[in-house]
């Protein structure tokens, strides 16, 4: 049973996952990490889901690590710290590899591990006034477990700065770096986010899943003969698939594709 998360379905084929630790600014603790992992494992197994909204209650999206959790870490052995870090690593990877697009709804502050949580999202929509901060170096730590996702989101050069300075940076700065997709007044946040989610859900369900995977597979690869062969095979597979055939026929016949009827 979830105690730190709320799951609901605001639209057909859409699951919304909401962090509910507003009293501690939705900071991570082992229970929240475990619940997020289980929730996204269940979403990954649900073939009816086409998009996920990741949101949070209260004044902040996520303030990073919970203070009590950090206090307990101070007395951990290396082995205990390693096991603890493995749980966070698994959670982030589970969200990143979710087969359907994850749209992040970011408001308030987003610090430390919270930046990692936002970085695993496929599309990030942020309210004006949002502040991001990779604050680990201030505590004598490093943003190690979140680094694979944050570096992909921010780019190497910006990460080199913000990892070592622990400066705060705005949603507008994150947008200029190509990470945040949209920045808007907080009262418009849901409308902007819902437009993006609606666009995702209107597309071919299997094509959308395959598009998400395609980016992850192609990103960073050399332009090799094997990559060209794989992408050539993929488009042939999709054209010959039932969904691909329905999409092409509906376009030619000027009608809505069957997947929109649900």
Rough outline: globular
Spans of at least 5 consecutive residues whose pLDDT stays below 50 are none
- Outline the biggest β-sheet: 6 strands, mixed
As a percent range, the share of helical residues equals: 40-55%
CATH class division of the largest domain: Alpha Beta
Mean pLDDT: 94
Tally of individual domains = 2
Termini separation: 29 Å
Strand content: 5-15%
Characterize the structure shown.
Helices cover 48% and strands 15% of the residues. Helix 5 (147-154) crosses helix 6. The protein has 2 domains: 5-200, 2-enoyl-CoA Hydratase, Chain A, domain 1 (Alpha-Beta Complex), CATH 3.90.226; 204-260, Lyase 2-enoyl-coa Hydratase, Chain  A, domain 2, CATH 1.10.12.10. The protein starts with a strand and ends in a 10-residue tail after the last helix. With 262 residues, it is α/β, with parallel strands linked by helices. The strands form 2 sheets. It has a 6-stranded mixed beta sheet with strand order 1-2-3-4-6-9, sandwiched between helices. It has helices at residues 30-45, 67-73, 78-96, 113-119, 147-154, 156-165, 171-176, 189-201, 205-218, 225-240, 242-252, and strands spanning 5-8, 14-19, 51-56, 102-106, 109-111, 123-127, 131-133, 168-170, 182-184. Helix 1 (30-45) links the parallel strand 2 and strand 3. The chain contains 11 helices and 9 strands.
């Amino acid at each position: 049973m979830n105690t730190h998360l709320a799951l609901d379905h605001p639209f057909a084929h859409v699951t919304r996952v909401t962090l509910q630790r507003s009293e501690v600014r939705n900071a991570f603790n082992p229970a929240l990490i475990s619940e997020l992992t289980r929730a996204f494992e269940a979403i990954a197994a649900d073939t009816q889901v086409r998009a996920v909204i990741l949101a949070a209650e209260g004044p902040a999206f996520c303030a990073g690590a919970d203070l009590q959790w950090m206090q307990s870490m101070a007395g951990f052995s290396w082995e205990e710290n390693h096991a603890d870090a493995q749980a966070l690593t698994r959670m982030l990877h589970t969200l990143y590899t979710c087969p359907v697009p994850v749209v992040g709804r970011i408001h308030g502050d987003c610090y430390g591990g919270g930046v990692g949580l936002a970085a695993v999202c496929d599309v990030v929509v942020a309210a004006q006034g949002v502040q991001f901060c990779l604050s680990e170096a201030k505590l004598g730590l490093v943003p190690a477990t979140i680094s694979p996702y944050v570096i992909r989101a921010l780019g190497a050069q910006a990460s080199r700065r913000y990892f070592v300075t622990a400066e705060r940076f705005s949603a507008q700065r994150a947008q200029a770096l190509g990470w945040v997709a949209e920045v808007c007044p907080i009262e418009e946040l849901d409308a902007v986010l819902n437009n993006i989610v609606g666009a995702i859900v209107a597309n071919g369900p299997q094509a959308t899943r395959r598009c998400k995977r395609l980016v992850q597979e192609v990103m960073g690869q050399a332009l090799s003969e094997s990559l060209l062969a794989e992408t050539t095979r993929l488009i042939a597979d999709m054209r010959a698939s039932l969904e691909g055939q329905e999409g092409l026929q509906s376009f030619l016949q000027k009608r809505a594709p069957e997947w929109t009827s649900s």
